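Q: Predict the bound structure with 1-deoxynojirimycin.
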Amino acid sequence: MRLTETADVWWKNAVVYCLDIETFFDTDGDGRGDIRGLSQRIDHLAELGVTCLWLMPFYPTPDRDDGYDITDFYGVDSRLGTHGDLVELITLAQDRGMRVIADLVVNHTSDQHPWFQSARASRESPYRDWYVWRDEPPEDADKGIVFPDQEDSLWQYDEQAGQYYLHQFYKHQPDLDIANPEVREEITRILGFWLQLGLSGFRVDAVPFLLETKGSLDAADLPDPHDYLRDLRAFLNRRNGQAVLLGEVNLPYKDTRTFFGDEDGDELTMCFDFIGMQKLYLSLARSEPAELVKALRERPDPPEEAQWGTFVRNHDELTLDKLTEDEKKEVFAAFGPEEDMQLYGRGLRRRLPPMLGNDQARLRMVYSMLFTLPGTPVLFYGEEIGMGENLAADGRNAVRSPMQWTRDPNGGFSTADPDQLAGLVVEGELSPEHVNVADQRRDPDSLLNWIKLLIQRYRECPELSWGKYTILEHESPTVYAQLSEYEGGAVVALHNFSDEPAEVTLALAGTGVGVRVADLLTGKTSEVDNDGTLRHPVGPYGCCWLRVLRPDDRYII
Ligand code: NOJ
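A: Predicted complex:
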């Protein structure tokens, strides 16, 4: 591996960990996690092998959308801490070789933001044109509503303003107008500010919505919103050559591809693979990886200087919007048959372990997939210990429970009264009594130690993060087989989606005489025939990471 690649293009083999400060660790006993709490617990993440923290919004907010409704893009929510605490956190992270990125939520502001307050108060306000106004809502005002359960239009009449404003999300989140050059300049300033404080980039919220200028009467001033994204990226990397934009783009593949920019990869550094994620669940439901394979074959390659972001779960519902109605039904039947597990027919407000009946072998296989699939793996806090959801919480908050540190009350997250906590603690089989960091640290067979192992091996295999991958053909329909190659090294990953044992026969081209494979997860070796044929068993929900060993290779297994 070329050394410059690991530092300058660090994100290619990063392990990203997303967390919300308010549900991570509370040090002042007010029931809400805080920045100091995260700093105190940062070694948990360093030991896990995380290389990049993604902080969910920590800005001042009325908190009507879990902080994605912001009233000051330059501020830190005083309930969470101060700028000083944040800089300390970033320094502590850097000491441990971790970078920190944060959510950049500039498609909209909170309606409590002083800009909107001023904009709605007068047509003469300097901020009036920062938002998108109309005297009458357009005819397609009800098309493309993101939260159909709560909203019935993208346009809201504002008494004070005497006009309608555009809001692609909740009505309390008026859209900023990026066709307005002043808005674009302000967004640049926001980026510059946080980069200067030490962030290494941003998870960009709702990118297609941000670039959408249809509603804007000034759209003509912005011929191609992608030019704007390109400018933003150029600015970012002028200020910090290693900084990244990790974009939330949930579109069909061919459209998502455009957000990476041209062949130089000059727009988003990474885009989440929402389709691959959804097809993974469909494949799990069918105990066969065929649908995932189909998706991966259709998935466009990102430019050389870009990468997909892979994930199993995140802080929102598990969206199934890219599946057909029948496919969606299959996933619901398998993983969320009860109505309150579903979110208005479009997804599941669940975490993975309860969806899989807490089947440890299957769970471990899925995470093994996450770390071998081509793309940068992104974990959501609590996944490393197998946390569940609390369906008693409202909507998407079901998956946003406090982190489970110990068996103590509130899972050791906070000393406050349970009814004062920032989220509902998980109950039942996956409650802190049964699932917590402290117990799993001491248990060599825990999920936590499994994920640590996966991360270690992933970091040791540039083939997985830097290499080219090929999906291998074979006769067993329940096994996903993938060859990853980089600079002469090769790793074959096998994953069995079924609870029945399987065996695969693979043709490994050009291997030669005396070749073996060694399973990086167990150390077990097997011979490869002289003609390159490898026969290998894969247990029920089994996974193997097979490093190809030629006679004079000198790897540590
Ligand atoms: C996407 C975020 O992931 C979600 O949580 C939020 O509600 C919307 N964007 C609006 O910001």
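A: DSSP finds 17 helices and 22 strands in the chain.
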